[in-house]
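Weekly puzzle thread! Below is a chain. First person to post its structure in token form gets bragging rights.
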Amino acid sequence: SGFSKWTPVTASDSTFDLQSGTTKVILEVQASGGAGGTSDVSGNNAGSGGAGAYAKKLLTGMTGATDKLDITIGAVAAAAASGTVTSVAQAGTASFTTVTCTGGAGGAAGAVEAEGGAGGVIPTTGDLNIAGQNGLPGASFGYAAGPGSNSMFGFGGIRKEGSLGVGQAATGYGSGGGQARPSGSMAGGAGGAAIVIVWEYK
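Winning reply:
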């Protein structure tokens, strides 16, 4: 007995099947990140996106043949939007408290010191619970675009120093979209997608 299989899940699945013989499961839940805000016509940077929250949970006493997982993957945040909730709930004959993580908020629209998006609030249903990192505030015209926030599984989007253009999308999972470096109104980068990783043990 021991480690059997790991599965990264990037799309919602209300009846995720465990392998026959699985007795323990470790869940890693990473919510989606927020997007960078849209800069204003005066060229002020918007806030960058906040990262989604993360939780890790050990489930014991599982029966792989009949227990299932109800996995909800939060949507990717487009410009100025916030990440959404990602969760794992019981299904089939499984019985456990739903593990829930909130997404990061989108950055505020362009202004002097526009607020960065708040990171997802610290979860309460994991064994390990980590709040998302907050996004950076915007700045006046002429300053370099700030990066989005980092997550457990990704890095915030960031423009190359000195270059003008829309904000860069986050990389990996759960991180925040970066600020645009504008010469006018430009969109911030998209936030990172959510992911759930299911580790099975027999």
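Puzzle host: Confirmed. Bonus trivia for everyone else. DSSP finds no helices and eleven strands in the chain.
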